[in-house]
Amino acid sequence: MNTALVRSLRSGASRITLPNQVALITGAGRGLGEALARRLAAAGARVALADVQGEAVTRIAGNIAQAEKRPTLALTADVTDDEQVAAMVRRTVAEWGRLDILVANAGIVRSAPLTELGAADFRLVIDVNLTGYFLCAKHAVPVMKEQGRGCIIQINSVSGRRGSPGNSAYVAGKRGGIGFTQSLALELAGYGIRVNGIAPGHLLDSPLWVDSLFAQYAARDQVSPAEIRRRYEARAPLGRACTYDDVAHAVLFLASDQAAYLTGQTLDVSGGEVM
Ligand SMILES: NC(=O)c1ccc[n+]([C@@H]2O[C@H](COP(=O)([O-])OP(=O)(O)OC[C@H]3O[C@@H](n4cnc5c(N)ncnc54)[C@H](O)[C@@H]3O)[C@@H](O)[C@H]2O)c1
Predict the structure, then answer these.
(1) Rounded to whole angstroms, what are the CA distances from 246 to 168, 199, 234, 241, 249?
(2) Burial 77-86 (b: 16+ CB within 10 A, else e)
(3) Averaged pLDDT, groups of 10, the chain, 275 residues long
(4) CATH number attached to the domain at 17-201+243-269
């Protein structure tokens, strides 16, 4: 390796930073959204955290502000509500004058075999996971157009790449998100706005799995939760679960100028599960 490169790596010069960039993260009240808000703030961004759970997001935004010694913004907003999403973007811009990075992360799961899946649950999943992404982008884009730059990142899933039994609503919404990302990328390329997605593998240490999915799948398949974990880890050729850091590294990359030539892509961060 050449010595200049070694020196630059040692000095941390190649680490991605986003100083003074304003990032808005939805679904930041727990799980991956919270982790991404923390990583973006640690990279120097000013972060606005939005969630339907106002108390949680206020507590987390306070923690981040304390840790980074920089103000943060906590916004109570339901991504399925046009007015609330408009207000969420307005508040961010009123506070910091711009919006550089939108991370459309809010998402929910409702699993059931087709004939047991209620229409209300199907609609809710599509509403949060797909319409929510549409509304956030719709209200962020005018600000980004005005700036002549911006970056939108949707948190997708391996389930956006292929079918999954008992998860038809989730898969349909995530798959739709990939098409939406491509269409937006085409529509916005001329405005300096890049639109990409990330399709994480299974975040087996996230509250979604620990508090709910392990027990559900174990009951369904009549095996132990530990066996479910082993099966899901084995799905990734790299042999382990996806972590928040795996996803955060991809978010920081896509948000940075190092990804200046990437748009319309959904990046698989699934240990090789999808290729
Ligand atoms: N956990 C995984 O294994 C995994 C894997 C791949 C992709 N993902 C995706 O990552 C994203 C985050 O997942 P997670 O595991 O952190 O989920 P989570 O359930 O832990 O957190 C989701 C957050 O979104 C919020 N939220 C839900 N509905 C909302 C709404 N209408 N408006 C605003 N906020 C709302 C919730 O209050 C919660 O704080 C989702 O899009 C999910 O599909 C998760």
Answers:
(1) 26, 11, 17, 10, 6
(2) bbbbbeebbe
(3) 47 74 98 98 98 98 97 98 98 98 97 95 98 98 98 98 95 98 98 98 97 90 96 97 98 98 98 97
(4) 3.40.50.720
Give the start-to-end residue ranges of the domains of the chain. Answer: 17-201+243-269, 204-241
Name the residue of 84, 108, 162 to mutate for ligand 1: max ligand atoms within 8 A of Cβ: 108
Asked whether 144 lines ligand 1 (CB < 6 A), one says: no
Closest residue by Cα to residue 129 from 181, 87, 94: 181
Binding site membership of 105 for ligand 1 (Cβ less than 6 Å)? yes
Ligand 1 center to 27 CA (angstroms): 6
- The DSSP output letter for 273 is S
Q: What are the phi and psi torsion angles at 26 (to 5°)?
A: -95, 155
Is ligand 1 within 6 A of the CB of residue 26? yes
pTM exceeds 0.85, yes or no: yes
Identify which of 51, 76, 167 to mutate to test ligand 1's pocket (most ligand atoms within 8 A of the CB). Answer: 51
The DSSP-derived string for 168-236 is HHHHHHHHHHHHHHHHHHHHHGGGTEEEEEEEE---TTSHHIIIIIHHHHHHHHTS-HHHHHHHHHHHS
